[in-house]
Write a structure and sequence with these properties.
The structure holds two protein chains of two kinds. By secondary structure, chain A is of the alpha/beta class. In chain A, 28% of the residues lie in helices and 20% in strands. Chain A has helices at 4-20, 119-126, 157-160, 191-215, 227-236, 249-262, 278-284, 309-315, 334-343, 348-355, 357-362, 410-417, and strands at 28-36, 44-52, 55-61, 72-75, 80-83, 85-90, 129-134, 142-145, 147-150, 173-176, 242-246, 266-270, 287-290, 320-322, 380-383, 394-399, 402-406. In chain A, strands 1, 2, 3, 4, 5, 15, 16 and 17 form an eight-stranded mixed beta sheet that branches. A six-stranded mixed beta sheet of chain A has the order 8-10-11-12-13-14. Chain A is globular. The two termini of chain A are 44 Å apart. Chain B has one domain: TIM Barrel (Alpha-Beta Barrel), CATH 3.20.20.140. Chain B contains eleven helices and 16 strands. Chain B has helices at residues 8-12, 130-136, 167-170, 198-221, 232-241, 254-267, 283-289, 313-319, 340-352, 354-360, 363-369; strands spanning 33-40, 48-56, 59-65, 76-85, 87-92, 140-146, 153-161, 171-173, 178-182, 247-251, 271-275, 293-295, 324-326, 386-389, 400-405, 408-411. The interface between A and B is large, with 47 and 46 residues.
Chain lengths: 439, 417
């Protein structure tokens, strides 16, 4: 019943494709009849989406976009297609970077710690997530480098990496303030000390840069390589975005103050009390990735977390995205966060932008993902109906032209809904837990 | 699809608890209250399109189509797109487990001893806890709450309305069930301490139930001149053996569910299964035992002993005729509580359907808790507990606009900061 149409279309046209012969070098698919929500641009009621290889070739209304000869046609009438969802903060794969030896460890990376075979990855695909920022925990002022992953079919972390134009592994830097990073020595014991340690680290990196610049091309004058400071310089030079865990209104303002002093690029993460300081966040021109949870509390810093954060930030023109913080919320139900934000007054358009394009911008991937536009990666989700309805199912998830989740496959349905063995080998993913996840 | 077309016999077992039900609500509102709605889900028959509910002195005095129902003069009138009975959260720890999650507001689990059935929920329930008002905002008017899972026998539970400033004002059933847990979460981690294994959990529970039976027999035989000293612990367990109180057994893994059924067979107590993440593997066994299930939160985290949970379990059990209710459960971090409305919503979308999911948080939950003579449906004579929504109560983007408890009107969800 669910999406028999898609299957039927595939089946019928497989023969056509074969008859057409090996014309195109890359497999071409056309999705016909769905409501397309491109995010950039207006929705198309009866649309055609054409992908070739891993790239979107064309998108538009039926009639305006023709189905290329030899394309596999998918009948998706009555369905809704969104760009692949972007989860800007997750812990799938359970990776930890920094350890208990120091509060600031930019030389560590969660890249070296993620279990790519964790069931959390397929659960994220089941939720329509195609790109995810996997972060280390929040028990440190700086707990290490994050990685931006494409949820391609793959068993190793290398299969999922995204490369920047200059060939680096795409990712950010995880920072935190508030109570999680206040711990026994060598960690800071107060908020004042937390900020002082961060300032000292950035000042140290500035000094390191000065020495590097003074040495110029003279290698004999160069300071010894310092991997820790090199990573901090990436942050100061804007090549690595800071993803800053922060909850309380005063902690949010502290992050904004440090950002202004050192000029690093910043995405506020969680931002539980954003509604109290939305004007200040908007004035700073800083992006927020918010979480929507079912009740306040659970820890002192989240006593005033609100469904209305999305609305408060949107009304002031600030950039708002969403995250699962999986396993705080379930990747399979990521769209629910947008639904609840709309419940509290955010616009539907803004909430869907927040699930896709806003996240892409926060990860510097806006030229490749986040919207359905010709030339962008063929990352998208086929839904059974209204993206913000509890009754809607994620039917299929496609990453770079490959279907990585299909609700019609029994093994995928079991991941989507649960059942015996569905959790294995999933582990209790590290979330932003009290005490840095060392619970 | 009829609500609650299943399993009345097994649920009827739970009605004994109603014996302990407190006095009916005193009239809160002097003026009668009239609620008009596009759709009234009475949960006692088909939904009424264009319906009206009249509440006087805390109780429902009329329900029916607006056309044929007379409305008292001078009544306060509320309107909504959809009206349901006030929702029932069939198992929670709200009121004992506070939202701050600091030691001072966590009273759901006492770890000093593994078997403490004498711990009363009424001595711990905080009627002013912020989460009580939070869940009420989404339409929850009744909660079954108390000592939580995590100890072999953790204590007693109660049923309360989500109103009142003291437990005395809130309580509906002061002692509803005795809460027990089987499985790894009830195992004590400290080396050398019991219970340290599943086998020991079962052995200790059997031993205490046997002791409680012997104690009751001794008390019965004792001469007035030589009374047997009272033992609050064995008295409480004795109320399980006599069938006065159900034993609420939280058991997630299949082997633990089977142990619960085995003990129930041996001692004949009234068993209510709780959580039951693996219940989808044991449909025949649970049905044969005639045991109702308070199914884990639909969105519960699938880790550890709940790793096999399925969002479709409520539907599968209901399809098999097993009586079910839904719950918010227990959360030890963020969010501090789930909202049973949202859990029912997803269960509805995973095979249960709208009407059966509504039943699982209204009339079916009331039957399971033995309070359906007062609560759970919109019928004349029942408590005036209603939830008013601006659309399908289960949609993410709908709102609970107002809540009525025994005729007293409360604001709906407070989410728009």
């Amino acid at each position: 019943m669910r999406h028999a149409g898609v299957r039927r279309g595939l089946f019928l046209l497989a023969a056509v494709t074969m008859a057409a012969g090996a014309g195109a070098a890359e497999p071409t698919h056309a999705f016909v009849g769905a409501r397309l929500v491109p995010i950039v641009g207006e929705p198309v009621q009866d649309g055609v989406l054409v992908i070739e290889g891993g790239t979107i070739r064309a998108i538009g209304p039926a009639g305006a976009v023709s189905v290329p000869a030899g394309a596999t046609v998918h009948d998706v009438a009555g369905k809704v297609i969104l760009p692949g969802l972007v989860d800007t903060h997750s812990h799938i794969g359970g990776g930890r970077a920094a350890d208990g030896s120091a509060p600031i460890q930019p030389d560590t990376s969660v890249l070296d710690a993620i279990n790519a075979r964790d069931a959390g990855f397929q659960r994220a695909r089941a939720g329509g997530i195609t790109t995810v920022n996997v972060m280390p925990g929040s028990g440190h002022l700086m707990s290490g480098r994050t990685v931006y992953l494409k949820l391609r079919a793959g068993d190793t972390i290398e299969d999922l990496l995204i490369r920047t134009a200059d060939g680096r592994v795409a990712g950010g830097m995880k920072m935190a303030n508030g109570t999680n990073s206040r711990r026994d020595p060598p960690f800071p014991g107060t908020r004042g000390k937390s900020a002082a340690l961060v300032r000292a680290a950035f000042v140290e990196a500035q000094e390191y840069r000065r020495k590097l610049e003074a040495a110029g091309d003279d290698s004999s004058k160069r300071p010894d390589r310092d991997l820790r400071l090199e990573a901090l310089l990436e942050v100061l030079d804007g090549r690595r975005v800071v993803h800053h865990h922060t909850h309380r209104h005063d902690d949010i303002l502290t992050v904004l103050r440090l950002q202004k002093e050192f000029g690093f690029r910043l995405v506020l993460q969680h931002v539980s009390e954003a509604w109290k300081v939305a004007d200040e966040i908007a004035a700073a021109g800083v992006a927020s990735s918010i979480i929507v949870v079912d009740s306040p509390g659970g820890k002192l810093e989240t006593m005033d977390v609100a469904f209305g954060n999305g609305r408060a930030l949107e009304e002031r023109g600030a950039l708002v995205g969403f995250h699962t913080d999986d396993w705080i919320t379930d990747s399979r139900l990521f769209l629910r966060s947008a639904g609840l934000a709309v419940r509290a007054g955010m616009s539907r358009k803004g909430a869907l932008y927040g699930m896709t394009m806003a996240g892409a911008r926060m990860l510097d991937l806006q030229d490749r993902i986040g919207s359905l536009e010709a030339g962008k990666d063929a990352d998208f989700v086929v839904l059974s109906g209204d993206p913000l309805s509890v009754y809607t199912r994620v039917l299929e998830t496609w990453v770079e032209g490959n279907r990585v989740f299909d609700l019609e496959r029994p093994e995928d349905e079991r991941i989507a809904d649960g059942g015996y063995g569905a959790g294995q080998p999933r582990q209790e993913a590290l979330a932003c837990l009290e005490g840095g996840g060392e619970r | 699809m009829r609500p609650a077309a299943h399993g009345r016999t097994a649920v009827a077992l739970a009605v004994g608890a109603a014996a302990a039900v407190c006095a009916a609500p005193s009239g809160i509102e002097a003026a009668p209250l009239v609620v008009k709605a596009g759709t009234v889900y009475t949960m006692a028959g088909e939904p009424i399109q264009g319906g009206v509910v009249v509440v006087e002195d805390g109780r429902i005095v009329a329900v029916g189509p607006a056309a044929g129902t007379s409305v008292p003069p001078g009544a306060q009138v509320l309107e909504a797109a959809v009206v349901t009975p006030g929702l029932i959260d069939a198992h929670s720890v709200v009121g004992l487990s506070g939202y701050l999650n600091q030691p001072h507001d966590q009273d759901q689990l006492e770890r000093s001893s593994p078997v403490q059935p004498e711990l009363r929920a009424i001595d711990a329930y905080d009627a002013r806890e912020r989460l009580v008002a939070w869940i009420r905002g989404f339409g929850v008017t009744t909660i079954h709450t108390g000592h939580g899972p995590g100890a072999l026998v953790s204590g007693q539970t109660l049923v309360a309305k989500t109103r009142g400033e003291t437990v005395e004002e809130a309580v509906v059933v002061p002692v509803a069930m005795i809460a027990a847990t089987l499985g790894e979460s009830a195992v004590v981690e400290e080396k050398g301490k019991a219970p340290g294994t599943r086998g020991k959990l079962a052995a200790m529970l059997r031993a205490d139930l046997v002791k409680a039976g012997e104690y009751a027999a001794k008390r019965e035989r004792a001469k007035e001149s030589e009374p047997v000293p009272r033992d609050l612990r064995l008295e409480a367990l004795g109320r399980v053996l006599t069938g006065e109180l159900p034993l609420l057994v939280t058991a997630q893994r299949h082997q633990d569910i089977m142990t619960a059924l085995r003990l129930q067979g041996e001692f004949g107590f009234r068993l209510v299964l709780d959580g039951a993440a693996d219940a989808h593997l044991l449909i025949d066994e649970i049905r044969a035992a005639g045991v109702p299930v308070i199914v884990h939160p639909t969105m519960g985290r699938a880790v550890g002993e709940t790793e096999n949970l399925s969002m479709r379990t409520a539907a599968r059990l209901a399809d098999a005729g097993i009586p079910i209710a839904l719950q918010s459960g227990f959360e030890d971090y963020v969010p501090k509580t789930r909202v049973v409305l949202f859990e029912a919503a997803l269960a509805a979308a995973r095979g249960l359907g709208r009407v059966r999911a509504l039943a699982a948080v209204t009339i079916d939950a009331a039957r399971l808790l033995g309070i359906d003579d007062r609560i759970g449906s919109l019928e004349v004579g029942k408590d005036g507990d209603l939830a008013l929504y601006d659309g399908d109560p289960f949609e993410y983007t709908s709102h609970c606009e107002r809540v009525v408890i025994a005729g007293e009107v409360f604001p709906g969800e407070q989410i728009r900061h």
